[in-house]
Design goal:
Chain A is α/β, with parallel strands linked by helices. Chain A contains twelve helices and nine strands. The chains are: A alpha/beta (about 300), B alpha+beta (about 625).
């Protein structure tokens, strides 16, 4: 675990200047980005969700847009629509905010299920169809959705099937006292002031690299054991889907790349297990901080 | 967990015997009551194992052996539960303790075959003298009436198997238990009545050559007995045979005594003896002529008549001269025994006595007179008493013997065929001293029933009046199957004594007497080899590839120091914890962890064998360090 030479370490440090004292969450969000996954942030307003999304986008020089989801938001408001150009007698496609590399979907659970589903389909397929024409979404494409954990009552909570599309669910949480003091002292940078030399090409290269991180048969056994344990009858929580297994392995690969290794260790799997699996295990009902995942770890037993 | 151990305790007391085990049992039960901590439960389980072992040394019947086995299994399961923690599946626990028992089996077998049969272990039965509750059975005092109660009792008395041979012919199925030599005019008493140990030493000396170790070519057991508790130290036997058990003693009267507890079932075996039994030639004493003169005047008159008839016979001069004490009897001239018996038989046959189980009570004064001359009906006890009294009155030494006659030959589906003796097979007969021949068995009941003395009793079965001895219900059938197994178990479990051990060794090692050293060596070597094999087998089962072996070895070393992986812990995390717990360990720890991670999870490009060798070296060094600094 001696790997300070990773190319993303400067970026993590830089984002750390925007989001004080949140290095772990920053690394997890970055791992999610590198593993081509989407991120669900669940926290109170004002805990830095937007800052994180924007900093990630700027760190790789990606364009960034933010949409506040409201109950009257329509799918077309996201995807864009065809507008008739009377001079040329031709429909022009005006892309919506979905066509950005990093999209921050604020309070996703306040939109109608129809709109949610439009977003999630775009997330899954990487393309958007409007009036029969399909338009590819930009590469890379990352959705960071937030939902207000305390506010779920009057809204449309995401169903389990759609939660499964998010690779990770993160809680940013309150900053530590020292970090908050620094924040109050104005030492935090604004996301717009973030300086990074990385480009979208770098990101794509890193994403390619993640796929080549070696996962040995022993490690696959571990992941398979975890999945199998989650499907044991009598165990609390929902069983993990094969997609969850893919997400877990991809996230673990990204995590080990960030740690500067070329192979995945069980530690990597364990580090990403809670963000990747907890929301799939509890079906969206946050019960505790990763309790179900921790029980799963204990159940998989054996020194790995 | 507590429940589990408690359950084990429910099992053990069934086979309770012996002061030591009893106190252990009480101790353990008390400990279980107050136990709170793990190590206390552990102690309880271990105590339970020890107790089961002690009981095993004392009680070798099939039933108790099975119970003991069960108790051991449950105790092991309790221990496993303690050591493994969260396993709650009882079946799984029992299966694992079964595996443990299997692994211990080779060692147990070697010890069973070769462990010297001496010292306190095989002697523990002597402690078990308590709890000799009086049980129905033969009585040391034979008064008219006591045997009647027995005859109506269908409960089992004893079983006997004849290894290497079928049942003896019906005429020889007389199983003697008690010899009643003391006559007071009313009742016949057994000599050492009520005192199990008293007079044993002399009796044993009188019994002639002790069946000791030196006897070459001692044959195997020819009678294996399983006798129900009857409250007496005397146990049934055929009257011939060499005891194969150190608890068994023959006495001069032909009684076989077992010095174990009288309230317990006894399993013992006898070997064939080429020479005729010594007790048959044991000369009578004054006791055998003792007669309460005047208590039965008509009987004495009858006998006096025979005496006159007999003395007229020229050949029957001083038949009683063999007896020193015969002078104590009035009228020193006595009739010759065989003649007296013949006279008595003739007289009995012409009297028209009736065999009957229910008879009016005999009067207190002159009971035998009343029997012979007024009532004229009775059963074996009556007639045996009367005949023996008549013989004594005629000056011929005689006594009454009680025991069992006949029995049902049972061939169960499994186990050994055996002769099943019930309390209803109880019988009494006379023994008369015939000069030059010894003690002759004379059964007046046969005369009464119209049979011949010692002739062909198949024609006249004494069993006939006892109403359907063979009417076996389904429960009887099950019980007989069980007893058959029980006897078979006894034949090789209890029957395997010092002599069988010597025979086995002699067969294995040749006829050398000085194989003690070799024996020890062989035993140790065998035990070690089997133990190692079992250990290796278990290890091979538990481990996969070489990486896992290395890791498991290190983990064992750590576990000895109390450091075990927690659920869900990774190798790296465990390494860090180990480092914190043992800061003095060398850098091999990190090397080991790193290498293992690299080999297990890294790209396969690296030279595998080289890495494995390095890992093995690091592991060795670590284990050495862990051993040297235990904390």
């Amino acid at each position: 675990m001696s790997a300070i030479n990773s190319p993303v370490q400067p970026l993590i440090a830089a984002i750390g200047q925007v989001l004080l004292g949140k290095e772990h969450q920053v690394k997890l969000a970055l791992a999610c980005l590198l593993a081509r996954g989407h991120l669900l942030l669940e926290d109170l307003p004002g805990t830095g969700k937007t800052s994180l999304a924007e900093a990630l986008a700027r760190g790789f020089g990606l364009n960034f847009r933010r949409v506040s989801f409201t109950s009257d938001l329509l799918p077309a408001d996201l995807t864009g629509l065809n507008i008739f150009d009377s001079q040329r007698s031709h429909f022009d496609f005006h892309p919506g905010p979905l066509f950005s590399q990093v999209l921050l979907a604020d309070e996703i659970n306040r939109a109608s299920p129809r709109t949610q589903s439009a977003l999630l389909e775009a997330m899954a397929n990487g393309r958007v169809s409007v009036d029969g024409t399909s338009h590819p979404l930009p590469e890379p494409f990352l959705v960071i959705a937030t939902q207000n954990g305390l506010d779920q009552g009057g809204t449309s909570p995401l169903p389990e099937s759609q939660l499964d599309r998010f690779m990770m669910r993160l809680n940013l949480g309150f900053p530590a006292r020292e970090s908050e003091r620094a924040l109050l002292q104005g030492q935090a940078l604004k996301a717009t002031e973030l300086a990074s030399e990385l480009t979208p090409a770098h990101l794509q290269a890193l994403q390619q690299q993640v796929q080549t991180v070696h996962a040995s048969p022993a490690l696959l056994d571990y992941v398979l054991d975890l999945l199998a344990r989650s499907r044991d009858t009598g165990r609390p929580g929902l069983p993990l889907s094969p997609r969850a297994g893919l997400a877990l392995l991809a996230a673990a690969r990204a995590w080990s790349l960030i740690a500067g290794r070329d192979h995945v260790l069980p530690e990597d799997v364990q580090a990403v297990l809670t963000p990747v699996c907890e929301h799939r295990l509890d079906g969206g009902q946050s019960r505790g901080e990763g309790g179900l995942s921790r029980r799963l770890l204990g159940a998989a037993g054996g020194l790995r | 967990m507590g429940l589990l151990t408690a359950a084990a305790w429910g099992v053990a007391p069934f086979s309770l015997l012996g002061g030591l085990s009893l106190s252990l049992l009480v101790l353990t039960a008390l400990k279980l009551r107050e136990a709170k901590q793990r190590r206390e439960y552990r102690l309880v389980s271990l105590l339970q194992l020890v107790t089961a072992g002690l009981l095993g040394a004392q009680q070798g019947e099939l039933g108790s052996s099975l119970l003991q086995g069960l108790a051991v299994l449950v105790a092991l399961a309790g221990l496993l539960q303690l050591e493994l923690g969260e396993v709650t599946n009882l079946g799984k626990l029992l299966r694992r303790s079964g595996q443990l028992v299997l692994a211990a089996l080779p060692m147990a077998l070697v010890l069973f075959l070769l462990f010297p049969r001496l010292g306190p272990f095989s002697d523990l039965g002597r402690l078990g003298q308590f709890g000799a509750a009086a049980t129905t059975g033969l009585s040391t005092t034979l008064e008219p009436g006591t045997i009647a109660t027995l005859t109506q009792d269908r409960s089992p008395a004893a079983r006997v198997a004849f290894p290497g041979g079928g049942p003896p012919p019906a005429s020889q199925r007389l199983w003697r238990v008690l010899v009643h030599g003391q006559f007071d005019g009313q009742s016949w008493r057994s000599l050492n009545a009520g005192m199990a140990g008293a007079g044993m030493a002399e009796a044993d000396i009188a019994a002639g050559p002790d069946p000791s170790l030196g006897a070459p070519q001692t044959p195997g057991a020819t009678q294996v007995w399983l006798s129900e508790p009857n409250g007496l130290p005397e146990v049934p036997w055929s009257g011939a045979g060499l005891p194969l058990d150190r608890h068994l003693k023959r006495d001069g009267q032909g009684q076989l005594r077992h010095d174990g507890s009288v309230g317990v079932r006894k399993l013992y075996s006898l070997a064939a003896e080429p020479a005729p039994a010594t007790w048959r030639r044991q000369a009578p004493t004054a006791q055998d002529l003792q007669m309460a003169a005047g208590t039965n005047p008509r009987l004495e008159t009858l006998a006096a008549g025979w005496r006159r008839q007999g003395s007229g016979d020229a050949q029957a001069v001083g038949g009683a001269k063999a007896v020193e004490g015969a002078k104590a009897v009035e009228g020193a001239k006595a009739v010759e025994g065989a003649k007296a018996v013949a006279l008595a038989e003739a007289w009995f046959r012409q009297q028209g006595f009736r065999y009957s189980l229910s008879n009016p009570l005999l009067p207190e004064t002159a009971p035998l007179d009343a029997l012979l001359f007024e009532q004229r009906q009775g059963f074996c006890g009556h007639y045996a008493s009367a005949l023996s009294a008549l013989m004594r009155a005629a000056g011929v030494p005689a006594r009454v013997v009680s025991g069992y006659r006949g029995g049902t030959w049972v061939v169960p589906l499994g186990g050994s065929a055996f002769l099943d003796l019930r309390q209803s097979d109880a019988h009494a007969w006379s023994e008369v001293w015939i000069a030059g021949e010894g003690w002759r068995t004379v059964d007046p009941t046969l005369w009464v029933l119209g049979g011949t003395t010692g002739g062909d009793p198949a024609a006249t079965s004494v069993q006939a009046p006892s109403a359907g001895a063979d009417r076996a219900g389904p429960l009887d059938w099950v019980a007989r199957q069980w007893w058959g197994l029980d006897l078979a178990w006894g034949e090789w479990w209890l029957g395997f004594d010092q002599r069988s051990q010597e025979r086995l060794l002699q067969r294995l090692l040749g006829p050398y007497r000085d194989w003690a050293g070799a024996l020890l060596l062989v035993a140790v070597a065998l035990t070690l080899a089997l133990g190692l094999a079992a250990y290796g087998w278990l290890r091979r089962r538990g481990e996969g590839d070489r990486l896992q072996q290395e890791l498991n070895q290190l983990l064992r070393s750590c576990a000895r120091g109390g450091l075990v992986p927690m659920p869900g812990e990774t190798l790296g995390q465990f390494g860090q914890r180990l480092r914190q717990a043992r800061p003095l360990l060398g850098p091999e720890l990190e090397d080991f962890v790193g290498l293992l991670q690299q080999l297990r999870y890294g790209r396969p490009g690296a030279p595998q064998q080289q890495g494995l060798d390095r890992l093995s070296r690091c592991g060795q060094s670590l284990r050495r360090q862990l051993r040297r600094s235990p904390s």
